[in-house]
Design goal:
By secondary structure, this protein is an alpha/beta fold. Helix content is 47%, strand content 13%. The protein folds into two domains: 125 residues, Response regulator (Rossmann fold); 62 residues, Arc Repressor Mutant, subunit A. The chain has a five-stranded parallel beta sheet, with helices on both faces. The chain is globular, with a radius of gyration of 18 Å. This is Response regulator transcription factor. InterPro entries: CheY-like_superfamily, NreC/VraR/RcsB-like_REC, Sig_transdc_resp-reg_C-effctor, Sig_transdc_resp-reg_receiver, Tscrpt_reg_LuxR_C, WalR-like. Keywords: DNA-binding, Phosphoprotein, Transcription, Transcription regulation.
């Protein structure tokens, strides 16, 4: 099956580069391009792409609002949104994840990482990289008020589920978690499903957000 992709970025050269990269893959195809958030929302509804690569800072409507509308309105909600950002970051990325984005990719990431991210999002997965995502989420969560006590919902987790939760927050993949705990990857997925259900979370990216919002992760050293 071919994964269809909509690219939303206000820079023509960025759109062209991304389109060339995506179309070079036999299993991926660009079906549309938008130069602002409003156009991204319109094309997402018309084309219903599997994945929308969404820039944050665009005219008429920013990527945050566009993401929220795509994920909550009509047929466009079937599209998975992946936020594109630069390393020094837009302050909106944290909120974009909460608005429904599956994660984010750095514009200058290696081509194979960008392509992998598209495929992961198309499968309904969340983009969680210990070298990028956790550090960026921490940067935003650090500026938000944190509760003094852990949320009561954590008490609903079994010891094994808490171990899986902690390793997910640390950026470990299901394969790595299975190896570290000595359990099958399918068992890891089952435990993770129980964790997200008990904590009311959407996916592993939001498990990381939850952990940083509730001060469950010690701050990184300067």
């Amino acid at each position: 099956m071919t994964v269809t992709v909509l690219i939303a970025d206000d820079q023509a050269v960025v759109r062209a580069g991304l389109a060339m990269l995506v179309d070079s893959q036999p299993d991926l195809a660009v079906v549309g391009q938008a130069h602002d958030g409003r156009g991204a929302v319109r094309l997402a509804a018309e084309l219903v792409p599997d994945v929308v690569l969404m820039d944050i800072r665009m005219p008429l409507m920013d990527g945050l609002e566009a993401t929220r509308r795509i994920r909550t309105a009509g047929t466009g909600s079937a599209s998975q949104v992946v936020v594109l950002t630069t390393y020094d970051l837009d302050e909106y990325v944290f909120d974009a994840l909460r608005a429904g984005a599956r994660g984010f990719l750095l514009k200058h990431a290696p081509p194979e990482e960008l392509l992998h991210g598209i495929r992961v999002a198309a499968r309904g997965g969340a983009l969680l990289s210990p070298s990028v995502t956790i550090r960026l989420i921490e940067a935003f969560a650090a500026g938000r008020a944190r509760p003094a006590r852990p949320p009561a919902a954590l008490a609903r987790l079994t010891p094994r589920e808490r171990e899986v939760f902690d390793l997910v927050v640390a950026g470990r993949s299901n394969t790595e978690i299975g190896r570290m705990l000595g359990i099958a990857e399918t068992t890891v997925k089952t435990h993770l499903g129980h964790v997200t259900e008990k904590l009311g979370l959407r996916d592993r990216v939001h498990a990381v957000i939850f952990a940083y919002e509730h001060a469950l992760v010690p701050p990184s050293p300067p």
